[in-house]
Amino acid sequence: MSLSRLLRLLAAMLTLATALLVGRVATVEWRNQDLAAVGRESVSELRRALAAAEMVSRERGPTNGVLGDDTPPQPQRRERLAEARARSDAALAALGQVLVDGPHDARHQNAERHVQQARDALQRARAGVDALSAVPKAERTPAQIRAQVGAMVAVVPLIAPAISLMAEEAQQALPVLGDDVQGARMAAELREYAGLLGSHFTAALTAQQPFSAEERAAIERTRGRIDQLRGLLDLRLRTPGTADAAQQAWQQVQQAYFGRAASLVDQVVTAGNGDGRYGMDPAAFATAYVPDMNSLFALRDLLLDNAAARASAQARDARRVLWLTAAGSAVLLAVLAVSMLMVQRRLLRPLVQTAGALHALARNDLQAPLPVARAGDEMAAVVGAVRTLQDHTRQRQALEAERDALIEQLRALSNTDFLTGLPNRRAFMLAAERELAQARRHAVSMVLVLLDVDHFKQFNDSHGHAAGDEALVAVAGAVRQALRAGDLVARFGGEEFVLLMAHCTAQQALAFAERLRAAIAAAAVTVPGRGAPARVTASIGLADAGTAPSALADLLDQADQAMYLAKEAGRNRVVLAATDPISPAGAGSS
């Protein structure tokens, strides 16, 4: 194996080992970053699910106030209820959209179905509330009120599958989020049971009578569940490592809900178990009870913020490791590349070049330089020889480029009339064939125009060939100015010019040709030795190709015949093939 191949193999093995190591680390950290993103998104979606449950739960407060109000309800209470309903609808719609945009597996579809059921159940419950609130207060029975309150309470459990799904997704993506996620769920559940407890009081507060046996049982069950959740949250939030902010929020809950709100509940329970003299209606109870109860939402949101912050921190850590890994691998590969480059430049490349020069000499190639020994770097002479070869190659390429440019210039000159600068007959014939082929395919109307300078030979004989050349240049200028964009024009030979006009009818071409004829007749021709400029005219023949043009030769023949008809009719005229000559106004023969 040659030295060059051995070094390349070694470099490839080192590069592969580095790539495998970096790839492994990058794969792990990239997955960690993706999981962190999934966890953060799941926490955000969980927040929306809990917010939907919160809004529905909050709606029960103004609902209970309306159920306990006189008929019709006070406008302020009805307005608060409308605002609460709007918030619930928006939160449920946002949650539904999250599920629609997410994966379409069975669990997401089940959660989406339950959310839709919650929306439907909420609408039915609202309809019942509105119907009952329209009944005079004295005619509302506690059983009816409890039924409507129960219908509202039954909506929140339908959102539970979505909450469970999003909490599990967050924990599966990042297990470290488990404590905060579960704590937030318990805080939200505790808030729901606290709201449920207040809803149990609505019928009794409305009727201002003691609790029924059924209400007492429901109240005790709910208070038992609240105490259970309180103990679980207290145990979770007092463990070492819990953030100070979370512990402070929990202390606020203890003071607000389990202090002031619990005292209010005890007062209502005492009255409900006694004579039923509460001293307040459902709206007044909600006004005093709900603000302290909402401290649980602050705890829930803080725990969700902690979970989102943990996910963001993991994502940052993963990105940091990725950057460090990328930087380390880049440095390692750069050192390897520099080493290989130095070996390549100082040893391998000169050796290969020297071998090439020797092989050239073996083939009797006297142009190939031979290495020359010099003082200093042993390979400097070889490098100098290679540079010389490169200079020679560049010179050859420059000459080849110059030759190609000259060929291109000659090709352009072969297609251009040297006197007028217009395309010549050869260029026109090639371009016109292409245009006619396109016209046949796309049914484009075309007209061929052929013009000949009148009495050009006499003009030459009278004024000299220099004046004749000036006349042709003047005619070419008039043609060039009249030409439309996209039309073909050429000096066809001698004093003849040809145009091929696309998207042009016979009438349009006649009008164009008449303008061109007048422009030629008005063009001034400079005559050497003569003060006043001379004038020339032209006879113009047109061949209408229609939308199915025939062969170019046929069109040229028709235009040529029309042009000679114009000359026979007196020159300085325009004639359309197969029609009578058209005499220009005021034009005479010339």
Automatic annotation (TrEMBL):
A UniProt-annotated Pfam family: HAMP
What are the recorded Gene Ontology BP terms? cell adhesion involved in single-species biofilm formation; negative regulation of bacterial-type flagellum-dependent cell motility; signal transduction
Q: Which GO terms describe its cellular component?
A: plasma membrane
Q: Which regions span the lipid bilayer?
A: 321-343
Residue ranges of the region described as Disordered: 55-81
Q: What class of enzyme is it?
A: transferase
Keyword vocabulary terms for this entry: Coiled coil, Membrane, Transmembrane, Transmembrane helix
Q: Extract the coiled-coil ranges from the record.
A: 382-416
Q: Which reaction does it catalyse?
A: 2 GTP = 3',3'-c-di-GMP + 2 diphosphate
Location of the GGDEF domain: 444-579
Q: Which residues form the HAMP domain?
A: 345-398
What's the EC number here? 2.7.7.65
**Gene Ontology molecular functions:** diguanylate cyclase activity
Q: What is the protein's given name?
A: diguanylate cyclase
Q: Which organism is it from?
A: Pseudaquabacterium pictum
